[in-house]
Amino acid sequence: MKILSITAQKPHSTGSGVYLTELVRAWDRAGHEQFVVAGIAPDDAVSFPDSVGFGAVYYDSKEMPFHICGMSDEMPYPSTRYSDMTDTMVSQFKKAFLDKIRARIDDFDPDLIVCHHLYLLTAFVREAFPNKKIIGFCHGSDLRQIAKNPLRREFIQKEIKTLDAVFTLNNHLKDEIVRIFGFDPQNVNVVGAGYNHEIFRDEKIVEHEGISLLYAGKLSEAKGVFSLVRALDLLPYKDDEVVLTLAGNAGSDEVMDSLVNLAGKSRFRIDFAGYLSQIELAHYMNRSDVFILPSFYEGFALVVIEAMACGCKAVCTDIPGIKEYYDLKLPGHDIEFVPMPSIMRNIDEPAAESLPAFEENLAKAIVVSVNKPKQNPDVSVFSWDGIARALLSF
């Protein structure tokens, strides 16, 4: 089969970029012909198998003189918020991507087009190529964007509804897709996410004293990182017994400065590791006792699976849909789930008055996880090859 994968964002970066990359690699292993079109900055490096074609659509260029459009309002690299896009920017975005995509369709003639995110670019592609077989993949952040941002909302909803099929990460997101787009539930498929077992595996050979905690992802309020730093001071340990490592980047210098300032007031040591490759992240996971994902919104929380594959115990916010999926696919997972804040102002914005209770529950969950014996769950069910096959079986 000839497959064209499309994303408006960087491949390799953030959860959706890693998801696209791993699907492409799995389809390459299965012998499919492929081409990828993605939006990147002029100095970005891209790495796909040699047999996979790649077409870059450049942001920060004459054609698109603005940063990469981020599906989240805070990305771990310079980005443009969709809510800040003008009509001129939308027109430049549409032309730059469709020119590149049209050229690939003309010379590659794909059997299937896979668009990542049920949002603006996917709607433009569906509108431009109504006779091509096109499926969309929902990562969750796209639903958050369409709920918060009125940009071309009716147009997006109309075009997404005509996709040949949609795939997503859990049943909660499936229900939201049906509600938001009026999609036929039979054409919305839950496939979950996979992890790279060659990179993320238990190799805990580094002994360390004290308690080593790890977070990896965007450094932002929506990811609960500020709450995590505040929750540390509620832990019943001596000042020199705990080290927290924060891996990732903030979306702006202002956010980063605020987080560094808050971390500097903690009685525990907090290290900033910056952006890590998957190999580097696996190394940190193998040096850590507990992985913590205090996020207020996630599509699947793949990073939790990666951490458990490396032998970490895990703490995660009880984000709708995630616990149910883990309970089904990974019984006996032993993840400590923290109740969501009781009051949410938006889909990923808790009310300030609800954070103290959330942070207290987060601290309690960390203590429970620290005191648990090490678990060795079999996470092999989360296979990229199996997920890649599922996307071609509709």
Summarize the structure.
By secondary structure, the protein is α/β, with parallel strands linked by helices. The chain has helices at 14-29, 87-108, 120-128, 141-148, 153-160, 171-181, 225-232, 253-264, 278-286, 302-309, 322-329, 355-371, 384-391; strands at residues 2-7, 33-40, 53-58, 68-70, 79-81, 112-116, 134-137, 165-168, 188-190, 211-216, 242-247, 269-274, 290-293, 313-317, 336-338, 344-346, 349-350.
Would you mind describing this structure in some detail?
This protein has 394 residues and is α/β, with parallel strands linked by helices. The chain has 13 helices and 17 strands. The strands form four sheets. A seven-stranded parallel sheet has the order 3-2-1-6-7-8-9, with helices on both faces. Strand 6 (112-116), helix 3 and strand 7 (134-137) form a beta-alpha-beta unit. The model has no long low-confidence stretch (mean pLDDT 93).
DSSP helical segment count: 13
Biggest sheet layout: 7 strands, parallel
What's the CATH first level of the largest domain? Alpha Beta
- Integer tally of domains: 2
Low-pLDDT parts are none
User: Which band does the percent of strand residues land in?
Assistant: 15-25%
The coarse silhouette is: globular
Number of strands: 17
Q: Could you name the CATH topology of the largest domain? A: Rossmann fold
Query: What is the typical, i.e. mean, pLDDT?
Result: 93
Strand order of the largest sheet: 3-2-1-6-7-8-9
The level of helicity is: 25-40%
Radius of gyration based on Cα positions: 21 Å
Give the structural class. alpha/beta
- Write down the secondary-structure element order: EHEEEEHEHEHHEHEEHEHEHEHEHEEEHH
